[in-house]
Amino acid sequence: MKKLIFFYLYIFLSFNLNAQGAITNISCSPANPTVNDTIYFFVETQFPSSDCLLMNSSFSINGNSIIASAQHCLGMLTAICNTTDTFMILPLSVGTYIFNMTLSSGFGGPLTLKLSFGLKLSSNSISE
Predict the structure, then answer these.
(1) Rounded Cα distance, 69 and 102, in Å
(2) Residue pLDDT, tens place only, 47-106
(3) Which of 40, 51, 104 is nearest to 76 (CA)?
(4) Contacts of 41 by beta carbon, 8 Å cutoff, 6+ apart
(5) 18 in helix, strand or coil?
(6) How confident is the model over 97-125, as pLDDT tens digits?
(7) Structural Rg of the chain based on CA atoms
(8) How far apart are CA 19 and CA 74, in angstroms?
């Protein structure tokens, strides 16, 4: 009986450890937005399991920090799954902003990855 319990625990933990995603790129559009533009952040992610459905995504703006998060539920098939999460940010005032992204994936306790992307917003354009 102990061997059976350890076997199931091993299988469960092995799948959880392999269910890690990665943030491969963060970009924004338009390339040089003004204070009148709506900004889109595109977060490209990759997972070792398919299907990698988006379960939940959200963002908030706190001062000059844009804090975004996405949670993906992974399937049982071992295949690379690439996906892009899109965040639409309404026009911002002049300033320097940091886009912080947290990616969670897997089963049980989520694996969390964080990546920051900085933008400087002026009255005429944003520069990276």
Answers:
(1) 5
(2) 888 888 888 899 999 998 999 999 888 888 888 999 999 999 999 988 888 888 888 887
(3) 51
(4) 26, 27, 28, 66, 68, 86, 87, 89, 99, 101, 117
(5) helix
(6) 888 888 888 754 455 555 566 666 655 54
(7) 18
(8) 7
Measure Cα distances from 85 to 16, 35, 42, 61, 123 in Å: 22, 23, 6, 17, 28
23 and 115 Cβ atoms separated by less than 8 Å: yes
Per the structure, the count of domains in the chain is 1
Type of residue at 107: F
Whether pLDDT at 9 is above 60:
no
Pairing of strands 22-29, 95-105: unpaired
* Residue 34, domain CATH: 2.60.40
Kindly provide the b/e burial profile for residues 74-105, where b requires at least 16 CB atoms within 10 angstroms of the residue's own CB. beeeeeebebebebebeebeeeebebbbebbb
Whole-angstrom distance, CA of residue 82 vs CA of residue 45: 6
Q: For the whole model, what pTM was predicted?
A: 0.72
Domain of 123?
A: 2-127
The predicted pLDDT at position 8 comes to: 44
